[in-house]
């Protein structure tokens, strides 16, 4: 009797998840391994991946289309939260994990599996995100993580797989570890492990090198309704198409690269390179529209919520009570975040150059220095007296 009888394994087609298929059966006594590859717009051909799982001994090989849900249910709510981990990383990899966990849990129910499995190692954030999300969605389900326990080196892993029909990649595999989906790419390892080393141009795929970008600026508009992007350049697009088109327009101008040393939940600092052209520009635009349509106190209070939200998502607590409570706050703030943002794209930077909204709180008669000025200047004096009173009393007490 093994650790589980029937297991649904999160499958990417990579070495680790492929080796999990025979490993679960031969080392851990699992009777049946069903693989599940989630399509999150990573651009892989999925049929060869499906076949590869069968060749490695999977009883069934499932493909789940998660693209629509990924953008609508995960990316866009995070956008409404202007979510940037440590003020920089838009969580493009992290956001995919709770969705994959949900797809695994659903497949386990459909196929009567008593466990789910993933190929994460013990050093990353993703193991935490999977394990915690699965526990939140079905606390009775076992989670198996063979790669966290098997203790094999890369070479040993490949050799183990070859014994059971896991074909290792023909081309010399890249020194980088790359995670890819509709929102972008995360690249680490190889020469990037030295934080002093400039990332070689070859690692990028969604963003142009600056010497290749157009010499003319390009202007785009983004329309939002209730804090959600609805139109690009005046054209209504479904969420997936909008993100795809925006990625290509923005990436062409070399916008959307991040090079950072980040703090993982497991205590390790890691150097990661990200490309997330569309998401970064969407956050910039969304935040700008909020500055036009939210009151000062909500805007400023929301910053703290956004930071907490980003940490929760990074740290694997997507399905948690605090996250749900923050979601309610964020949704409540979005009722007037409707309008248009105009952005100039040029040589690696996106600059908001215009904004308008039917709910704009910007009041020209109050802001102007011209003759139409409607602000009561005399009222300022009494306001300042009261505002400064505690400071005045404090200073007087010093003598
Ligand atoms: N550090 C990022 C995160 O924890 C990305 C992790 C995956 N990166 C990778 N290169 N495989 O969300």
The coarse overall form would be elongated
Report Rg: 25 Å
Question: Helicity range of the residues?
Answer: 40-55%
How are strands sequenced across the largest beta sheet?
3-2-1-4-5
What are the defining features of this structure?
399 residues, binds arginine, Rossmann fold, 5-stranded antiparallel beta sheet, 13 helices, 5-stranded parallel beta sheet, Single alpha-helices involved in coiled-coils or other helix-helix interfaces, alpha/beta, Argininosuccinate synthetase, chain A, domain 2, elongated, 3 domains, single chain, 42% helix
Question: TL;DR?
Answer:
A hairpin with a 2-residue loop joins strand 6 (177-181) and strand 7. The chain has 13 helices and 14 strands. The protein has 399 residues and is α/β, with parallel strands linked by helices.
Structural notes for this entry:
The protein has helices at 15-26, 46-55, 67-80, 96-111, 126-137, 146-149, 154-163, 239-252, 277-293, 296-314, 321-333, 364-367, 377-398; strands at 6-10, 32-39, 60-65, 115-117, 142-144, 177-181, 184-188, 218-225, 228-232, 235-236, 257-263, 269-275, 339-346, 349-356. It is α/β, with parallel strands linked by helices and 399 residues long. It folds into three domains: 6-175, Rossmann fold (3-Layer(aba) Sandwich); 178-356, Argininosuccinate synthetase, chain A, domain 2, CATH 3.90.1260.10; 364-398, Single alpha-helices involved in coiled-coils or other helix-helix interfaces, CATH 1.20.5. Strands 3-2-1-4-5 form a five-stranded parallel sheet, with helices on both faces. Helix 1 crosses helix 7 (154-163) and helix 4 crosses helix 5 (126-137). The mean pLDDT is 95. Bound molecules: arginine. Arginine is lined by residues 93-94, 125, 177-179, 186-188, 272.
């Amino acid at each position: 009797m093994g650790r589980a009888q029937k297991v649904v394994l999160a499958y990417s087609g990579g070495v680790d998840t492929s080796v999990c298929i025979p490993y679960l059966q031969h080392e851990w006594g699992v009777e049946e391994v069903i693989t599940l590859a989630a399509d999150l717009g990573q651009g892989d051909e999925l049929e060869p991946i499906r076949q590869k799982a069968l060749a490695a001994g999977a009883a069934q090989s499932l493909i789940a289309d998660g693209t629509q849900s990924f953008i609508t249910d995960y990316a866009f709510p995070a956008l409404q939260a202007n979510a940037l981990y440590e003020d920089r990383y838009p969580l493009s990899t992290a956001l995919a994990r709770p969705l994959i966990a949900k797809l695994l849990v659903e497949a386990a129910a459909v196929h009567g599996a008593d466990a789910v499995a993933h190929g994460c190692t013990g050093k990353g954030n993703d193991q935490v995100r999977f394990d915690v999300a699965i526990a939140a969605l079905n606390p009775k389900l076992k989670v198996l993580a063979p790669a966290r326990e098997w203790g094999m080196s890369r070479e040993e892993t490949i050799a183990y797989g070859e014994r059971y029909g896991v074909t290792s990649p023909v081309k010399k595999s890249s020194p980088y570890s790359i995670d890819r989906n509709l929102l972008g790419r995360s690249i680490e390892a190889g020469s990037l492990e030295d934080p002093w080393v400039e990332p070689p141009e070859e690692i990028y795929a969604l963003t142009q090198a600056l010497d290749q970008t157009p010499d003319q600026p390009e202007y785009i508009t983004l329309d939002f309704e209730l804090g959600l992007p609805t139109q690009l350049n005046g054209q209504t697009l479904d969420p997936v198409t909008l993100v795809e088109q925006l990625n290509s327009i923005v990436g062409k101008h070399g916008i959307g690269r991040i090079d950072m040393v980040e703090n993982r939940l497991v205590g390790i600092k890691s150097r990661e390179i990200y490309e997330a052209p569309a998401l970064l520009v969407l956050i910039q635009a969304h935040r700008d529209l909020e500055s036009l349509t939210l009151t000062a106190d909500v805007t400023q209070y929301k910053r703290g919520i956004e930071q907490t939200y980003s940490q929760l998502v990074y740290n694997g607590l997507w399905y948690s009570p605090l996250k749900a409570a923050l979601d309610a706050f964020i949704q409540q703030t979005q009722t007037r975040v409707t309008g248009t943002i105009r952005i100039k794209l040029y040589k690696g930077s996106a600059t908001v150059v215009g904004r308008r909204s039917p709910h704009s709180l910007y009041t020209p008669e109050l802001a102007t220095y011209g003759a139409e000025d409607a602000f009561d200047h005399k009222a300022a004096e009494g306001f300042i007296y009261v505002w400064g009173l505690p400071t005045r009393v404090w200073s007087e007490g010093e003598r």
